[in-house]
């Protein structure tokens, strides 16, 4: 029997399921090791059960009107949950809310024939500068009305020029009038040497005017890993780590992670040309490389970089003995050695024109034979141009076992190092879990940067616990730390740091229950948490929980789109996860909102195909982009319903509601997916 029906009907018609008549079924799947791609472990599992659905109250809808060429009249408010499919052989990748209240949704499809013929369309020019050989795929942006009920226009590149339109960024400080619009996406090329992604600046932002093309477009080289036999995609191509500042200058990552060749952060000016940054560690000119300030170079500097190849000149390590030996604040009440983050792996500084000390570092860590680093994200403060980025290094423990170490770094607009945070305490015991940075976002309301990180493995020395915050001794997060006995899993983590000094302000683990587990805590007393066992009580087993997007709201709320198994959902969620006693769970995507201190959940709902009490029908969606809807409003998420290797849609349908005229209740191959959840 399908249990993905309205919440009220579920409670009336199926009291046995709802009130605990069924034992747990199925088991959780462990995750695979990190190999430089974003493939999800366990998501193809058909075990699990999808949540029940329930309506939630809406908002006042006063989000502004969208300019439109396709019809008059004021849009009705966006005042309830909305879940819709769209397109045929299509996907949505990113959603962006504009200052007039309308939305942009980017993606890709085989064609746009699924749009109504009356929708205005513009074919964007300027993609001819890109090196790509994709056969027929169309990268597009849909401009949607403020209530998501109407497609106002569609802009797209010619078929076969780009694989998709993935990321979208604008130049304004959040809350201001929408600035210039920049995009990025994947390219498909005949040879791995040319592989990577593109970044482009469009000539319109859909508020002042619809774009007609790209003012400029640049290929970013991100070839597959040599260590992986040049197969697959570089994490730089998958993640596309870049951001744009208020003046239109783009900072981006390029290269291959955990490899032998090259990786770096570089910069383009507002015209798309290579730029210099005075205090970045490395510069290139007509006479070669330069490792002091750009202005001290005797010739002409062509561009600058932050080298992400551990140990090399121009990377993030000290250039003198004093900097290497410095004892500095670790950002959470302790100390560590080294002025720069990569000092951790070496026995001394790397002196330009002199010795460049080798491994190990002061706690015994060394770098591996694959020294290029994985850049997880970049974000720029559009008020002053400060840059924040997070990366991970493939390391070697003193006993010879492999490991991965994370760090978050802040630099001024001129490239001066402001602070860095290891995200855990550096000790001689080291931190054996593999740890990575997967995302960053700015909390403008509280002057913080939010870091989305991930740990693979179980060890007491892990990412900062939610109840060990030096600046707030009384803090306790929704999930303070690891629990249970499952070690071969990936679990996510959120941490907020002060912009000026990198001091930890709050943190929580995002780590959902395994399908079945003992050691559960007592039910939570908050009615919004719907009687779920306290994640900080007992010692329950967890399973892989990987997050794919991060967004901060206007009041500092933190939203994530993640993959989990027995995901905790809130009382007002559109699609809820049944409790342990009500049947098996399924791998699922979920949207969640935390308050700025991570002490509880504001909202949490599944986005997955309907699955039964045996757990069949789920594990078939992805949600890649999210956006808040104004102060105290809802959350929009976009993604796709996935297909198997034969192109057949997986599992069961996601329960839809309030489907707009441009949407559908059905799937047609891989099918784009959009949800709006009211966040109470």
What can you see in these coordinates?
The chain has two domains: 7-56 and 80-118 and 141-262 and 372-657, YVTN repeat-like/Quinoprotein amine dehydrogenase (Methylamine Dehydrogenase, Chain H); 309-371, no CATH class. The protein contains four helices and 34 strands. 3% of the residues lie in helices and 31% in strands. By secondary structure, the chain is mainly beta. The strands form eight sheets. Strands 11-12-13-16-14-15 form a six-stranded antiparallel sheet, with no helix packed on it. The longest helix is centred in the N-terminal third of the chain and has 7 residues, at 7-13. The protein is globular and about 65 Å long. Residues 1-20 form the signal peptide. Residues 27-82 are annotated as: Disordered. This is Lipoprotein. Keywords: Signal.
Protein topology:
Elements: H1 7-13, H2 15-18, E1 82-86, E2 90-97, E3 103-109, E4 121-123, E5 138-144, E6 151-156, E7 167-170, E8 181-186, E9 196-202, E10 214-221, H3 235-239, E11 242-244, E12 250-255, E13 263-268, E14 282-285, E15 288-290, E16 301-307, H4 321-325, E17 327-329, E18 335-337, E19 366-367, E20 374-380, E21 387-396, E22 402-411, E23 417-421, E24 434-443, E25 448-456, E26 490-498, E27 504-510, E28 546-552, E29 558-564, E30 588-594, E31 603-607, E32 621-628, E33 635-641, E34 671-677
Parallel strand pairs: 4-6
Antiparallel strand pairs: 1-34, 2-3, 3-5, 5-6, 7-8, 8-9, 9-10, 11-12, 12-13, 13-16, 14-15, 14-16, 17-18, 19-21, 20-21, 21-22, 22-23, 24-25, 25-26, 26-27, 28-29, 29-30, 30-31, 32-33, 33-34
Organism: Plesiocystis pacifica SIR-1
Biased composition (Acidic residues): 31-41
Keywords: Signal
């Amino acid at each position: 029997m399908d249990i993905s029906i309205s919440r009220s009907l579920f409670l009336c018609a199926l009291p046995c399921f709802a009130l605990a008549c069924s034992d747990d079924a199925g088991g959780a799947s462990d995750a695979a090791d990190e190999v430089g791609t974003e493939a999800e472990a366990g998501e193809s599992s058909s075990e699990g059960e999808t949540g029940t659905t329930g309506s939630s109250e809406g908002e006042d809808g006063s989000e502004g009107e969208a300019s439109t060429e396709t019809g008059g009249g004021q849009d009705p408010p966006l005042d309830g949950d909305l879940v819709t499919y769209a397109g045929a052989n299509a996907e949505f990748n990113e959603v962006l809310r504009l200052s007039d209240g309308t939305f942009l949704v980017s993606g890709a499809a085989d064609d746009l024939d699924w749009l109504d013929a009356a929708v205005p369309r513009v074919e964007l020019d300027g993609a001819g500068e890109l090196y790509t050989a994709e056969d027929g795929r169309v990268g597009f942006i849909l401009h949607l009305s403020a209530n998501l009920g109407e497609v106002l226009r569609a802009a797209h590149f010619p078929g076969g020029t780009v694989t998709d339109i993935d990321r979208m960024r604008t130049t304004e400080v959040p809350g201001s009038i929408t600035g210039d619009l920049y995009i990025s996406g994947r390219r498909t090329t005949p040879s791995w040497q040319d592989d990577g992604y593109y970044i482009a600046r469009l000539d319109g932002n859909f508020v002042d005017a619809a774009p007609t093309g790209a003012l400029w477009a640049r290929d970013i080289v991100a070839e597959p890993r040599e260590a992986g036999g040049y197969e697959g995609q570089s994490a730089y191509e998958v993640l596309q780590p870049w951001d744009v500042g208020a003046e239109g200058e783009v900072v981006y990552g390029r290269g291959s992670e955990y490899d032998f060749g090259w990786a770096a952060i570089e910069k383009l000016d507002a015209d798309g040309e290579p730029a210099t940054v005075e205090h970045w560690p490395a510069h290139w000119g007509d006479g070669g490389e330069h490792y002091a300030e750009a202005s001290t170079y005797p010739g002409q500097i062509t561009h600058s970089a932050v080298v992400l190849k551990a140990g090399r000149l121009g990377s993030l390590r000290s250039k003198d003995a004093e900097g290497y030996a410095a004892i500095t604040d670790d950002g959470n009440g302790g100390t560590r050695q080294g002025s720069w983050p990569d000092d951790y792996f070496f026995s001394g500084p790397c002196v330009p024109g002199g010795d460049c000390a080798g491994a190990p570092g002061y706690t015994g860590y060394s770098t591996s034979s694959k020294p290029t680093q994985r850049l997880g994200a970049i974000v720029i403060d559009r008020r002053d141009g400060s840059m924040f980025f997070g990366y991970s290094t493939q390391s070697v423990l003193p006993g010879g076992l492999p490991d991965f170490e994370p760090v978050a770094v802040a630099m001024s607009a001129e490239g001066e190092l402001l602070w860095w945070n290891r995200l855990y305490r550096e000790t001689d015991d080291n931190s054996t879990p593999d740890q990575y940075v997967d995302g960053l976002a700015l909390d403008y309301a509280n002057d913080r940067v939010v870091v989305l990180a991930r740990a693979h493995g179980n060890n007491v020395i892990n990412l900062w616990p939610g109840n060990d915050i030096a600046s707030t001794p009384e803090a306790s997060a929704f999930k303070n730390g690891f629990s249970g006995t499952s070690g071969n899993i990936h679990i996510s983590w959120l941490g907020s740091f002060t912009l000026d000094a990198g001091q930890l302000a709050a943190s929580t683990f995002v780590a959902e229950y395994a399908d079945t587990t003992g050691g559960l805590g007592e039910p939570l007393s908050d009615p919004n948490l719907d009687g779920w066992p306290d994640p900080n009580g007992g010692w329950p087993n967890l399973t892989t929980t990987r997050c794919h997007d991060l967004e901060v709201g206007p009041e500092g709320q933190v939203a994530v789109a993640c993959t989990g198994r027995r995901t905790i959902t809130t009382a007002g969620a559109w699609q809820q996860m049944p409790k342990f006693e009500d049947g098996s769970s399924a791998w699922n995507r979920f949207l969640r909102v935390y308050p700025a201190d991570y002490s509880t959940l504001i909202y949490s709902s599944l986005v997955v195909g309907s699955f039964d009490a045996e757990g069949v029908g789920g594990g078939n969606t992805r949600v890649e982009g999210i956006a808040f809807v104004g102060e105290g409003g809802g959350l929009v998420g976009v993604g796709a319903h996935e297909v198997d290797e034969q192109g057949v849609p997986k599992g069961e349908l996601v329960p839809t509601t309030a489907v707009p005229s441009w949407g559908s209740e059905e799937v047609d191959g891989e099918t784009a997916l959009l949800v709006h959840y009211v966040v109470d």
